[in-house]
Write a structure and sequence with these properties.
The protein is α+β, with helices and mostly antiparallel strands. It has twelve helices and six strands. A hairpin with a 6-residue loop joins strand 1 and strand 2.
Length: 255
C-alpha cells in the first residue's frame, strides 16, 4: 500500500511503498543533495601517506601550494584541501601567497610603467608635462581613490586585525568629525584617529595640485587637536614595513 512522503531536498509530496525506504522524490533531488558533500572514502587512501605533520611541513615550512602538494601525491586539489580542513591547518593569506609566488611583487617579465620614476626625477616632470599623460594618470589616481577602502587602508585594516588594535575603519564616510572624514577611529571611545596620507594628495612638495593647509601633515594634526583628538598620520610610501607601522600604532595607543 502506498504511503505519502515528503522529499528531504525539495520538500515535495510524493507517494511510495514503505518497503522502498525512499527519502527523495526523484534521482535529481538525490544527486542535488549530494553536491558539496565529501564522499564516504574521500581522502582515506592518501591520508595514510599525507599525515598532518607532513602536510603542515610541506605547506608552511617548504612553502608549497595546495596544487603543488596535490601534484606531488598524485591526488586532486580538493583532496588536499579537505585534509587541511580536517587537520585544522590554517591557510596563508592572499598577500602571503603572492609574496611566495613572486617576491618582487610583479609578474615575471612585467615592467611597471613607473619603474625608475621618482617624484623629483626629470623623467617624472617630463611625464607630467605631457597633457595626455597627465590626464590619463589623473584618471587612474582618482579612479583608485574612489575605491573604499583603498589599498593602503586595507593594509592598515589587516595590521589592526592581526595585532588586535582597537581601531575601526570609517574612511567610507560612516563617521564625520568637524567636517572631516577620518580613516580610522578608536572604537572604544578614546579620541584617537589614524589617517593614511598619500604623497600625491597631501605632500605639497610632491603633490600634483595645490594642497590646502588642512590637508597637509601639520595642518591636519592641528585641526584635529583643536577638536580634542590625537592623530597619527601614516604615509603610503612607508607601509611596506608592516612591523614598523605596527610599532607606530602601538606607541600611539600607549601615549
Amino acid at each position: 500500500m502506498l504511503e505519502t512522503l515528503i522529499c528531504e531536498y525539495c520538500e515535495r509530496v510524493f507517494d511510495a511503498y514503505p518497503s522502498s525506504n525512499r527519502r527523495y522524490c526523484s534521482l535529481v533531488c538525490y544527486h542535488k543533495n549530494l553536491r558539496g558533500k565529501p564522499t564516504w572514502n574521500k581522502g582515506r587512501g592518501i591520508q595514510q601517506k599525507l599525515t598532518k605533520r607532513l602536510l603542515n611541513y610541506l605547506y608552511w615550512e617548504e612553502k608549497l601550494s595546495i596544487s603543488d602538494i596535490a601534484k606531488s601525491f598524485s591526488c586532486s586539489y580538493g583532496t588536499v584541501y579537505y585534509l587541511m580542513e580536517k587537520y585544522n591547518i590554517p591557510r596563508r593569506s592572499r598577500s602571503e601567497s603572492l609574496k611566495i609566488k613572486n617576491p618582487g611583487g610583479f609578474k615575471v617579465g612585467y615592467t611597471p610603467w613607473n619603474k625608475g620614476i621618482t617624484y623629483e626625477s626629470p623623467k617624472n616632470k617630463e611625464y607630467w608635462a605631457n597633457p595626455v599623460n597627465r590626464k590619463l594618470q589623473l584618471e587612474r589616481i582618482f579612479k583608485g581613490f574612489a575605491k573604499k577602502p583603498t589599498t593602503p587602508e586595507r593594509l592598515i585594516i589587516k595590521i589592526c586585525e592581526e595585532n588586535k588594535f582597537p581601531f575601526k575603519y570609517c574612511g567610507d564616510g560612516s563617521k564625520i568629525i568637524g567636517g572631516k572624514v577620518p580613516d580610522f577611529l578608536h572604537e572604544k571611545g578614546k579620541k584617537k584617529i589614524i589617517e593614511v596620507f598619500g604623497r600625491v594628495f597631501h605632500d605639497p612638495s610632491k603633490a600634483i595640485f595645490d594642497v590646502t593647509w588642512d590637508r597637509q601633515y601639520f595642518g591636519r594634526l592641528a585641526y584635529y587637536s583643536q577638536l580634542g583628538y590625537d592623530c597619527l598620520i601614516l604615509w603610503d610610501d612607508e607601509l611596506e614595513d608592516e612591523e614598523m607601522v605596527a610599532r607606530k600604532i602601538r606607541g600611539f595607543l600607549d601615549a
